[in-house]
Design goal:
Elements lengths: L2 H22 L7 H16 L3 H9 L1 H12 L1 H9 L11 H16 L4 H8 L1 H29 L5 H11 L1 H14 L11 H16 L7 H22 L7 H12 L14 H10 L1
Helix pairs in contact: 1-12, 2-3, 2-4, 2-6, 2-8, 3-4, 5-9, 5-10, 8-9, 8-11, 8-12, 9-11, 11-12
Length: 282
Amino acid sequence: MGLGDVSEDTFLLRIELFKNVILKTPVFPYLWIPHCIMMNLALRGTIGHGSAALKFAKKHPLSCFMLACLYTFPGGILSALVLAQPPLGFLTQHNLFYAFLTVWYLMFFGPYDLLYKTIMTVPKISLVFSIAQDWLRVGLVAGAVTQVAALHPTAFLYSVVIATIKSSGFMLVKFAEHACLHGLTKGFVFPHHSSKTMVVAAALLTAQKHGHLQADWDTLVFLLVAWAVVARLITSLVFQNWDPYSLMETKVCSLLYGVDQDDPPQEKTKTAGETKKTKKDN
């Protein structure tokens, strides 16, 4: 056995180790608590960062709690409604619900607002928690595809839609929120690629279930989680706010709908280093 063979075996062994970690890591608490923290943080951003959210929570604790439930369990609630299942089924998952309840309380009523201030002071914490969220969401896609395949084994599009709703229900909540605040006359854009990644994951996993894609299920889930994590890191640390699907979207939309001559040309996405340099020059 040569040196090259040893290196290859070591590489494959490490890949298998990463695969086992991704597939066997339990949702609670490693993925769920970061998700609860990020969604309650998003709610604070919606209500108003700083003291505005705290004042609202103290004045309207029940409204704040219900909004937090909608922000934290959007995919479960919406997918249950579409599947004609109880929308409050998340209350039966005791560990998940009690963890959410604890995080919500600490985010809005915790001593010295310590949880919120820590996350806002150390931005890299949010990045790590966002990665955990993407990991969790791919798992939700896989679970939804498996669930729909058992109920409707020949339905392809239905499986993709349900899996997307379950993993990206927050996008639909924000759309409804935008419609209530601004009506339907103003366009709504959710500026991140993660929901598109979940659509791709839903399509690929559904294709695997239907036999259109010859790939091992566990390997496919592992690769989709890896892609979601890599995309999050690249768009957070290298090309900030870059959408890896934008080029394909632009080509497809121009082919199907034509090009709007009034649209201004899109600026090239700056890397994190270029952004810092620009700020320094200013």
